[in-house]
Amino acid sequence: MPAEAWTLGLGAVAAAMVGFSKTGVPGTGILVIPLMAALFGGRLSVGATLPLLILGDVLAVALYRQHAQWARLRTLAPWLLLGLLLGSGLLKLLGDLRLKADPLSPMIGVLVLVMLALNLLRGRLGQRLVPHSREGTVVTGALAGFTTMVSNAAGPIMSIFLNSSGLPKDQLMGTTAWTFLLLNLAKVPFLALLTADNPQEPLYTLATLRFDLLMVPLVLAGAWAGRALQRRLPEQAFSGALLSLAAVSAVLLIVRH
To answer: How far is CA 9 from the centre of its chain?
Structure first.
């Protein structure tokens, strides 16, 4: 299969999963991260994935915009920003080192496996996994900001924190949608500054932006499918299959680098 067809094929799957996860089964979005890293390498995948995530977030906000609990976001906001700064520092350091190997791909693989483990622990331990203290909020926010900056993989961390709130479903969906939209928009200037500072090690290129434009219809189709099939899918089995694929993809990212 030609390389371009392979890229478009895997990219189409990833883009559709972005839309589907934002309106259908949220946890399945973790599959997108190793797929995009396999296509673009760890560093470029960070910027290549971000526009697709923002589009998915806009669609989710359009559906649930009136249901956000802003007090939850305000407690996390400064610590999320701290995590973004720490993640940007790591991306700058790795870019300045200009290593021949791709250090971010195996790192992303490890982070995806950690997020999958947290997802499993959430199901087993429930509220006991959730940090309710101020210190726990600081750690949660900083870790989520750092993880999303270097890999776009903060979903499980934020889900654990927000799902512990006991909010009704619509308020939970609205708060989650606004959280990720604002968080992903906040990453844009960081990626732009890091790329301008070190154009030899970019986090996005014209090629990745063209790819994102091509994938817009797939994100929209995935979002429509997620909304339409939300109540009809055997969610547990479907999520299990996709999370297993994410685990395999993450392991491949690690062993191939």
So the answer is: 20
Residue 178, token pair as written in the block? 């606004």
Q: What residues contact 236, with CB distance under 8 A and at least 6 apart? A: none
Q: What is the pLDDT of residues 186-230, one digit of tens each?
A: 999 999 999 999 999 999 999 999 999 999 999 999 999 988 876
Alpha-helix residue ranges (DSSP H) falling in the chain: 3-23, 32-40, 42-64, 70-97, 104-125, 134-151, 155-163, 169-197, 206-229, 235-255
Cα gap 247→34, rounded to integer Å? 9
With CA atoms as reference, report the closest residue to 182 among 77, 72, 91. 77
Q: 96-125: per-residue pLDDT in tens?
A: 888 777 788 888 888 888 878 877 776 666
CA distance linking residue 83 with residue 190, whole number of Å:
12
Considering the entire predicted model, what is its pTM?
0.86
The answer to whether the CB of 149 falls within 8 A of the CB of 84 is yes
Which is it for the CA torsion 113, 115, 119, 122, positive or negative? positive
